[in-house]
Amino acid sequence: MDKRRVKLRHIECFLAVAQLGSLQRAAESLSITQPAVSKTLSELEEVVGSELFERGRQGAALTAAGRRFAPYARGCLGSLHEGLADLGGLNANPPTVVRVGALPTVASVLLPPALRVFAQEWPTATLAVSTGRNSELLDALKAAELDFVIGRMAEPKAMAGMVFEHLFREPLTVVVRPGHPALAGPQALAGHPLLMPPAGTLIRQSADSLIASWGVMAQPGRVESLSVSLNLALTLGNDAVWFVPFSLVEDLLAQRRVVALPFAGPGTDEPVGLLRRTDVALGAAAGRLFEAVRASGLERERLRLARG
C-alpha cells in the first residue's frame, strides 16, 4: 500500500458515501458528479487493496473492510479540522462535532450535567445525539457513525471490537397516577394498559419477569414505547401502568405526580455504562465529553449507594 497516494479528497468522498449510503447523494453533498465519486472511491480501494463498499440498487453499504477503515478516516478528518481550528484557520468551516449514542432512558439523566462541564472547555463544539435501542446504537458505533455510546453491555459476540465501562446500575420501577385502581393490588391491573419497553431489550426482560411474578391471570393490553413524554401523558391521562427506569421518574415521584406500585418491588438492576471501539482513539473533544459523562454516571452511582 502506497500511503502517499491517499489524498484528502479520497477521505472526504469515502466519508460522504458512508454517511449518506448513496454515491448520488454523496456527489450532491460534495458538489461533484457521480462518476467523479465512483472514480475517487475506486482510486482509494486500489490504494488500500480492498473493496470498501458494496454497491447495488439500494445504494452503497460499507463492507467489513470499509467498517474497519471508517473510524480512522473520520479521526483523520476530525483531527485535521481540530488542528486548523486551533491555529485559527477554520473560521469558515463547521465546528468540532462529537457524535454520541445514548439510550433514551439514560440520555436525559447523564448528558445534561456532563454537557455543563464539556461546554466550558469546548464552547463552540456541536454535539450530535442519537437515541435508539442498544443494538442499533452498537451497530452505529461499529460503523464509526458514533464516537461512543451510553448504553448497556451486549452479548459477547456483539461486543467484539468494543469495550464496556460500567458506570451505575439502573433499577426498574412501576408507576401510576395518584389514586390509580391498581394501587389495590395486581389483580386490579385488568383493563389498564401497560406501558412497556420494546420487546428484545434487557429492560423489557426485567418488566416481563415482574409481571410473571405477580401471577396476573388476565393479561392487560400493552403499549411499547420509549417516549418519556408519551408515556407520562398516558400514565396521567389514560390510567396506564408505566414500567420505567427509576432515574426517569425520580423527580416525578418526589413531586407526587406519579406513585410507585407498592406491590411491585424493585425490578432487576441493569448496568449502564460507556462503550467505545478498541481499535481507534477518541478525538480530543469526544474524549473530554467521555470523561464528563463518566463523572456524571459515577456520581449517580454514589448517590444511589448512599440512599441504600
TrEMBL record:
Residues 6-63 form the HTH lysR-type domain. GO terms for cellular component: cytosol. The keyword DNA-binding applies. Gene3D superfamilies: Periplasmic binding protein-like II, Winged helix-like DNA-binding domain superfamily/Winged helix DNA-binding domain. Pfam families: HTH_1, LysR_substrate. GO terms for molecular function: DNA binding; DNA-binding transcription factor activity. Keywords: DNA-binding, Transcription, Transcription regulation. One of its GO terms (biological process) is 3,4-dihydroxybenzoate catabolic process. InterPro entries: HTH-type_LysR_regulators (IPR050950), LysR_HTH_N (IPR000847), LysR_subst-bd (IPR005119), TF_PcaQ (IPR012787), WH-like_DNA-bd_sf (IPR036388), WH_DNA-bd_sf (IPR036390). The keyword Metal-binding does not apply. Transmembrane segments: none annotated. Belongs to the LysR transcriptional regulatory family. PANTHER family: HTH-TYPE TRANSCRIPTIONAL REGULATOR YBHD, NITROGEN ASSIMILATION TRANSCRIPTIONAL ACTIVATOR-RELATED. This is Galactose-binding protein regulator.
